[in-house]
Amino acid sequence: MRCHGSDKITNEGKSLMKAIWYEKPGKASEVLKYGEQQKPAPRPGEVLVRVEYSAVHPSDVKKRAGLQPAGFEDGFVIPHSDGSGTIEDVGTGVEDRRGERVWLYQAQYGRHCGSCAEYITVPSGMAPRLPDNADFSIGACIGIPVMTAYRCVHVAGNPADRVVLVTGASGRVGFYAVQWAKLANARVIATAGTVENCQVALDAGADWVLNYREGDLAQRIFECAGSGGVDHIVDVEFGQNARVSAEVLNNCGTIATYSSSRDPEPLIPFYPMMFKNVSVHTVLVYNMPDVAKQQAINAVNDAFSGRKLKHRISAVFHLAETAKAHELIESGAAAGCVLIRTSGEPD
User: Fold this and answer.
1) Is the pTM value of this prediction over 0.90?
2) Domains of the chain, with CATH numbers?
């Protein structure tokens, strides 16, 4: 069968491609396989993309390790949601986009076949055009972190002239959240855990950067924000930060959170939040509203046209070295995007 949606896939057929896959969850070096699989063909509404780069994110690594559900029960998985490449063919009902440079998002969400292969088919809308002034490597960095960051900054309304706190501002999402907030004319307070990471947040454009490991964090946030406190928080660790968030938010303040990995079942300071009419928005890029996805795509296009966003690439691996890329993500040592080059030979 060809690799679409939740189809099982095999290596039957004559047209093959190089790919990475796993048949069961486990340790990267033990379950990730490198070899040949059948090259897919586009179905109605789909495009066939020759992949240049595949991006590795923590969610990809957690799925492979079995810490997050794959979304289906059987069939092996070609991992990774994000990537970039060139459209080589289109299915029926799709305008002729052959030769168009694109970036990919949520390519493996609810599907067996992600971007960690030489070719992938996706619905045409999941392959937005990549502007000519953007390198393929940058295009692969966009999907999950950039779209999540945009949604988190804007989900509670226009942040212009508001005080926005970005926690974990040196991380993949936080780094872009600082930039989106500044592009929207917000005043940005950022937190990070080391001197080096505080500098990353400054480089992203934050007005104030605080090391959350030092002193009374809430008091230092108030010193930056003023007596009114913070209007909106983009939060990487909701449970861990909930009490400080409740303290520093102003009345009718809002939180947009995309993770609570250190405290996945948090105790919420309900009354301190209720007495301030605090609203909490949880953000998952895969199934956020289509209109929100399109808003993020439009913002990305505008940002590329004006070269408004900064990007960070920590490492690039060859397709055959994908296990090493997963291990780098798991180590916590990757400050920026980790990419897989799908063509050529390993060094």
Assistant:
1) yes
2) 16-141+311-341 (3.90.180.10), 147-286 (3.40.50.720)
